[in-house]
Q: What sequence folds into this?
């Protein structure tokens, strides 16, 4: 699974993406965030305030309870500030 | 109910790093009027400085594939919902200077309310739901711009019962 990071999340992690073998028992975004946090101290810190984390699964904005069983790309980013 | 003929315009969305000329873009947009349009709106968002902490440079990071998709989505919804004749939306990314245009939304419809509403709708949604992130560079350093609650609330007015 491809994991993308943007804006200050990318800056804090010092990388823009990870290619990971995600365990089969990880079913939704919440579980993925917990799993990533348990494996990486920097991600744990970045995800500390979950309210600030927006998620896109296969280029669609979703909520944290979204099912990711067949997902290919998951992007994590802070609230958007365009326009 | 008026139905768009096959030859009618469909929303045009452009993502680019290069600066654009707001007046030239608007004139070009107006030239595409098929004759059915009686009211046109042009909104341009500009890079704003801060008097207390002057901005030297603004950089917009974006998620290209999702940005294109979201902008097209909002433009298409506005096109249908407000029965617009045409929409053109330009959004920049990358580095820009104070005063430069960042975003421009242009709408045309038979009567003015739809053109105003369409442009307003697109701006309200893209503020919070299009993947762009601003970094302001000032003498004090670099700062990721935080989202505003008023922007989060602005789109609520478009929720339909």
A:
């Amino acid at each position: 699974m491809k994991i993308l990071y943007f804006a200050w999340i990318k800056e804090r992690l010092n990388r823009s993406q990870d290619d990971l073998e995600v365990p089969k028992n990880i079913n939704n975004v919440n579980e993925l965030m917990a799993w990533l946090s348990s494996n990486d101290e920097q991600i744990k810190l970045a995800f500390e305030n979950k309210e600030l984390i927006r998620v896109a699964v296969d280029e669609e904005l979703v909520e944290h309870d979204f099912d990711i069983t067949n997902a290919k790309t998951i992007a994590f980013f802070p609230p958007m500030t365009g326009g | 109910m008026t139905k768009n003929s096959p030859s009618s315009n469909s929303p045009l969305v452009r993502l680019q790093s290069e600066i654009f000329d707001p007046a030239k873009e608007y004139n070009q947009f107006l030239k595409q009027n098929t004759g059915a349009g009686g009211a046109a709106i042009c909104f341009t968002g500009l890079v704003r400085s801060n008097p207390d902490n002057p901005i030297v440079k603004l950089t917009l990071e974006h998620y290209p594939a999702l940005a294109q998709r979201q902008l097209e989505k909002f433009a298409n919804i506005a096109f249908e919902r407000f029965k617009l004749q045409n929409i053109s939306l330009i959004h920049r990314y990358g580095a820009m200077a104070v005063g430069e245009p960042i975003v421009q939304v242009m709408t045309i419809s038979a009567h003015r309310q739809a053109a105003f509403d369409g442009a307003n709708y697109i701006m309200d949604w893209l503020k919070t739901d299009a993947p762009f992130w601003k970094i302001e560079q000032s003498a004090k350093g670099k700062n990721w711009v935080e989202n505003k609650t008023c922007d989060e609330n602005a789109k609520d007015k478009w929720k339909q019962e």
User: Anything to note?
Assistant: The beta strands of chain A are 2-5, 17-19, 54-57, 61-62, 73-77. The interface with chain B takes residues 4, 6-8, 56, 59-61, 75, 77-83 of chain A (CB under 8 Å). Chain A has one domain: 2-77.
